[in-house]
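Session log. Operator J.P. requested a structure for one protein chain; no other inputs attached. Running the standard single-chain path with token output.
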Amino acid sequence: MRTDYSTERFEGFLRDMKESFWGDLQGQVQQTVKEMLEVDSEQRMEEYLGLRWYERAGEEERVDSRKGCYERDYATPWGIIRFRVRRTRFRSFLPRVLGAFERRAPEVAELIRQAFLRGIPTRAVGRVVALVTGEPISAQTVSRLTRVLDTQVRAFQEAGLEDDWAYLLLDGIWMKVRRSFGPQRVLLLVAYGIRPNGERRLLAFVRARGESQAAWEGLLQNLFQRGL
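Structure written below.
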């Protein structure tokens, strides 16, 4: 049987090219983001001083002066990016896209929350995220970032409702969740609204011990108070 070595070489070339391309792509993305952050920091300092990098102000016009830079790490989906932040004697100039205490991209924070929601233990979430970004995440950081979920749930449960639903569907749903001591079944009472055009939407949900009359009345009272 004749072996087509040209095909084997071509497939090997494709594999090597893909590995080289994607490996280089990540490096190029990191470098591009690094340069973008540093340029933005430089521009903010120039706007503050009213001077370009090569310009100098007279002593009577000077309100501040350059004082080099410091390095800062920023966790992104492409790994840890270390960039330089420009500063003067009196202040520093973070890029506009970064908050004062922001150490990671919003996508990384969302990755942490999604891992938590999928039942990964808090301590293990940090190890999972580190595989993607290279940033070690502590259990305390995971807990802090996932607390925003409580805020989002509270906002959902307090949001006003329009009274234009044709049907209201009520159901009790048992869900399996992971706890530190093992899996556990949790009952949720849920309410769906259906508009005349057929659109369906989740209106409310609440955790309950059982489908008692009191539990359902509590859910319906919540809907009523929100405008239904």
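Operator note: The chain has two domains: 13-150, 159-225.
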